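thought: user wants a sequence for this fold. calling inverse folding tool.
action: design(structure=
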């Protein structure tokens, strides 16, 4: 449908009890009410050969109002053609209190749109209001209702009632999710903002800015969005502090950005402040018997992954916001739309050198707390390209806290980047330095290339396992290829660091903090003034 630039919102009934439909038809809403058209004729026609007069639609509401009185343009949609009853909210109609934006409720004195008269169940005098901020984002605020409001975006969270809450309905580029439904008790209406999208019509944009200037950014006496306490529903204690959906912040999944054996990762909208986050969901063990046996340990592992990131914050470690166990275990964390170091198009050698130093900085922080990542690989290094290049370490599903009395003995990680002592049959204990070897291989691959490893050994028959001797043969061959590639490089400051990192004996291998300190001393890195993160001083001049 095509709407005139004077149209701000279109509101239709969304419940099945005729509550919203009857509310839309109240006399107090008549200035914006548009009756449904189409269907069978409810009166005699003018004649079999006569054109039916077109519905009288004001050209200030809908584009295309210059059609003739007795014909309809073929192939051109009209707002009411076959549509349901609706309210078409236009900028040219004055609001009762522009500072409050568009107010909906049961009081004729304060409400621009009446959702029912006083006594309507679930509807307060000032139920909620719609505002637009200086960045042209559209918000819904429930600051004054007695009964609360639920906001469904894309069919999600329609039963999650909140009071004194705020929801983002649309960015300046338009809604992130396809359907906006607002629930007040059993009464539900659907909102559309047909002109609010990428490449807005200049006339609509001018009207929208006028709406903001008249005061419809947020109601007086209430905090702006930025002033709302975002920690009121957050969880900060992984084992016992999980938030329940009935009281926590509201998140709306936007799209799937990754999936694997563990579950899925979505980009998600945090309703209260409109921030895009990443939501990592986890699948339980595959069969019922295993689920019953391993369920507690499985859930404890997810709690641990959250706790590692939550309890040890660092600029180069993934930031997490919340962990929820129900209905599906989910960790909410920062969203990095630029991807990871394996798939993000990195055009500059300086970015690789920056990533090298920043990952060392993050590892040094974690290792000082006794935490080994154990699965370091480019896919687990997420990228932020603007305003300044930054890398964070993510995916701590295999991490483990190492102490003097607890040795890391599990065979885990991605083969190409695994330290020699991790492979079965090595006879060596391993510690935090496994991450240093892994990062050394990653950086060698980034800056100097590495050979292709042989195919990993396979069990000789079904039900059998690869023997330690087979693993040791493969690991010995692979580390020989890696070290040979390193020896072929001309000396420079980075090669010097890699020679301290890619040492077979873990006792002699440099630690992350030592590598970073040596690199800063030798002119590889410095701390940039804007944010204090590691950045390169060195240009290697590779082709």
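)
observation: tool returned 543 residues.
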């Amino acid at each position: 449908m095509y709407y005139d630039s004077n149209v701000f919102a279109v509101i239709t009934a969304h419940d099945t009890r005729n509550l919203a439909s009857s509310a839309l038809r109240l006399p107090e809403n008549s200035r914006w009410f548009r009756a449904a058209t189409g269907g069978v004729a409810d009166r005699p026609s003018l004649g079999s050969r006569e054109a039916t007069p077109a519905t009288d639609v004001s050209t200030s509401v809908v584009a295309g109002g210059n059609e003739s009185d007795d014909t309809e343009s073929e192939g051109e949609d009209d707002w009411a053609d076959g549509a349901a009853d609706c309210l078409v909210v236009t900028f040219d109609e004055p609001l009762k209190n522009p500072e409050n934006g568009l107010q909906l409720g049961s009081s004729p004195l304060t409400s621009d749109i009446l959702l029912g008269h006083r006594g309507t169940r679930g509807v307060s005098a000032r139920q909620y209001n719609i505002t637009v901020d200086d960045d042209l984002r559209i918000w819904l605020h429930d600051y004054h209702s007695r009964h609360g409001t639920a906001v469904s975006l894309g069919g999600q969270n329609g039963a999650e009632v909140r009071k004194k809450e705020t929801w983002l309905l649309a960015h300046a580029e338009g809604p992130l999710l396809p359907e906006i439904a607002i629930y007040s008790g059993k009464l539900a209406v659907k909102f559309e903002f047909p002109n609010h999208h990428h490449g807005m019509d200049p006339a609509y944009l001018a009207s929208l800015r006028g709406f903001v200037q008249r005061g419809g950014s947020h109601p007086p006496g209430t905090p702006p969005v930025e002033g709302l306490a975002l920690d009121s529903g957050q969880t900060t204690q992984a084992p016992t502090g999980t938030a329940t959906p009935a009281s926590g912040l509201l998140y709306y999944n936007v799209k799937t950005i990754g999936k694997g054996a563990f579950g899925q990762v979505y980009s998600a909208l945090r309703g209260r402040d409109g921030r895009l986050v990443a939501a990592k969901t986890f699948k339980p063990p595959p069969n019922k018997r295993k689920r019953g046996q391993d369920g507690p340990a499985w859930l404890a592992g997810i709690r641990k992954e959250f706790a590692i990131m939550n309890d040890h914050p660092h600029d180069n470690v993934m930031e997490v916001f919340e962990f929820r166990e129900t209905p599906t275990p989910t960790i909410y964390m920062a969203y990095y739309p630029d991807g990871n170091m394996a798939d993000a198009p990195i055009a500059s050698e300086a970015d690789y050198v920056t990533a090298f130093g920043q990952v060392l900085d993050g590892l040094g922080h974690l290792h000082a707390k006794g935490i080994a990542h154990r699965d370091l690989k480019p896919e687990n290094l997420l990228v932020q390209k603007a305003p300044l290049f930054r890398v964070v370490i993510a995916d701590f599903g295999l991490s483990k806290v190492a102490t003097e009395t607890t040795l890391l003995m599990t065979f885990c990680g991605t083969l190409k980047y695994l330290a020699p002592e991790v492979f079965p049959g090595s006879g060596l204990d391993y510690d935090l330095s496994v991450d240093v070897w892994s990062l050394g291989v990653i950086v060698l691959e980034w800056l100097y290339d590495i050979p292709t490893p042989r195919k990993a050994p396979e069990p000789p028959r079904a039900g059998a396992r690869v023997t330690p001797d087979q693993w040791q043969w493969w690991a010995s061959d692979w580390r020989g290829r890696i070290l040979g590639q390193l020896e072929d490089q001309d000396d420079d400051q980075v090669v010097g660091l890699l020679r301290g990192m890619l040492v077979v004996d873990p006792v002699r291998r440099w630690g992350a903090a030592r590598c970073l300190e040596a690199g800063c001393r030798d002119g590889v890195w410095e701390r940039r003034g804007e944010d204090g993160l590691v950045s390169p001083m060195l240009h290697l001049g590779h082709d």
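thought: summarizing for user.
answer: Here is the designed sequence. The chain has three domains: 7-224, 251-334, 349-536.
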